[in-house]
Amino acid sequence: MSSTCHVYIILPCSFTFRVPESIHTHSYIGSVLMVPSGMDDVFKAIHLSPQDVPFTLDLNNNTASLYTLLPLDREMRDSYHFHVMATTSGVERLLANVTLDVLDVNDNRPCFSRSMYNITVNANSPALTTLLAVRATDFDTGSQLVYSIVTKSGAQPFAIDPMTGFFSLMHTLDRQSYAVEIQVSDGLFEDQAWIYNTFVHFRTV
What we know:
The chain is mainly beta and about 200 residues long. It has 1 helix and 16 strands.
């Protein structure tokens, strides 16, 4: 009397996913495994390794689907590499290698390096003199920062280069002191950064 033995050879597959860091928790990312027919008992014990990644697996209709488990933050970590494993008869078996890249979204405000700049300007300084170079940083990749003067009270004898942040004198001063409010923006209204109470004080000598 003979019997037939069905042997399944499982070769590890590789999957790459790209998701924005703004993805909500418990969101579907993609399918990482199709369970072969007749292998239900084996694949009931699938899990991720390492187990501390912010993702989870759901096995439904012979398909293992990957979901987010926790919020993602590209500035903290921009990629994950983990494995889909199956445990059967006490032995772990590698089923798939997964790479997940976290894509940047504009979720960080630009920030000036200082909250206040104090400088002294000679009243006889010629026009177009560069007085100061202000700097701001943004943790988001590819952000285009734009500098501007937002003070509305009267004519200002100053200008700021929107791209470089160079703050210049446009014409000679009349020996008065000035307070100038500046701002930096990353171009999106919902992420626009206003720098309040950031004054540049000019004292003539």
